Amino acid sequence: MTTITLDAVGKSFGDSRALTDISLQFPAGSFTALLGPSGCGKTTLLRLIAGFEQPTMGVVRFEGDVMADGTRMVPPEERNLGIVFQSYALWPHMDVAANVAYPLKGRGFGRAEIERRTAEALAMVSLTGYERRSVDALSGGQRQRVALARCLVTGTMIILLDEPLANLDVHLRAAMLDVFADTHKRTGATIVFVTHDQSEALALADTIVVLDGGRVQQIGTPEKIYGEPANAMVAGFVGRGSLVAASHGFAARGSASSRGKVLVRPHAVRLTETGLPASVLRLRYTGASYETTLVLANGDTLVADLPTRRGIGEEVRVTVDDAWSVPA
Ligand SMILES: Nc1ncnc2c1ncn2[C@@H]1O[C@H](COP(=O)(O)OP(=O)(O)OP(=O)(O)O)[C@@H](O)[C@H]1O
């Protein structure tokens, strides 16, 4: 198990700053998602941990050992970590077993040991029996599992996942979420996972780091990030919800300020006889409910998951059961 520590890390490319003052600890055995919009710096952060980039400022440590600072840098192949890329990065001319065994080459393992480890890694990703298949003949999800097996084969205790589900269809994504969760449970490795998809981060990670503009916006459990976002950026990026004026008087958790905004999740909105007046602006049927956008008297919009279809323009009254006072 390996703890990864970043201490006041910054990264610039020429004049442009990709990351500013990042201090983070990824405890041994943790599963952390780096989440944020395109260009926020999440891939750069992962590449700094991997050793593909050198920090312009600050220090990267594994278990207290300096991996990189402004002057020194341990190369990726000496960091004992495994990486799974969105693009799989498999060798097309090799079969599945040869791809998985590749990192064991030149490490002094005997043939039987290589076969044993390869079989074990393939079993972990449910690909036993696929040893002699060409990787060209595999589906996207199977290729991703080969890539994961290749990173497990050395027994590495750090696994870095760079948008690993981005190329997969929605059903395969769900299956791969389970594969990653199982892998984490079985290996106890420290996993860092880059994604721009908040539902993946909420589903998989024990800790989420939200980045924007190269800075950390919030670090917390999925429940904390969803339930108590630290600012308007996190509130707007993670989960569905509406930011409305605190002056509506909805009872809100957090430090209330009558001038600020409160976040209301769609499940917390009900239509009642006595609530605030609103009118129906639009709706979308989602199967489980009707995602209905309501307009309040001051023009704020409120999204609600309602059990029944309402008419566009219909006048209703709304009650909010839960809201979060978003810090300014
Ligand atoms: N090699 C590079 N040279 C110059 N600028 C770079 C380089 N790599 C990244 N950047 C810049 O650093 C910033 C952060 O990029 P990064 O790829 O880390 O973002 P990201 O959050 O992973 O985005 P995406 O989700 O689109 O991949 C961007 O402004 C990007 O243009």
From TrEMBL:
Keyword flag Disulfide bond: no
Cellular component GO terms, alphabetical: ATP-binding cassette (ABC) transporter complex
PROSITE patterns listed in its UniProt record: ABC_TRANSPORTER_1, ABC_TRANSPORTER_2
Listed GO MF terms: ATP binding; ATP hydrolysis activity; transmembrane transporter activity
Family matches, as Pfam families: ABC_tran (PF00005), TOBE_2 (PF08402)
Gene Ontology terms: biological process: quaternary ammonium group transport
Source species, domain of life: Bacteria
Keywords for the protein's UniProt record, in alphabetical order: ATP-binding, Nucleotide-binding, Transport
Keyword flag ATP-binding: yes
InterPro entries xref list: AAA+_ATPase, ABC_SmlMolc_Importer, ABC_transporter-like_ATP-bd, ABC_transporter-like_CS, Mo/tungstate-bd_C_term_dom, P-loop_NTPase, Transp-assoc_OB_typ2
Residue span(s) of domain ABC transporter: 4-238
Family membership: Belongs to the ABC transporter superfamily.
Protein name: Spermidine/putrescine ABC transporter ATP-binding protein
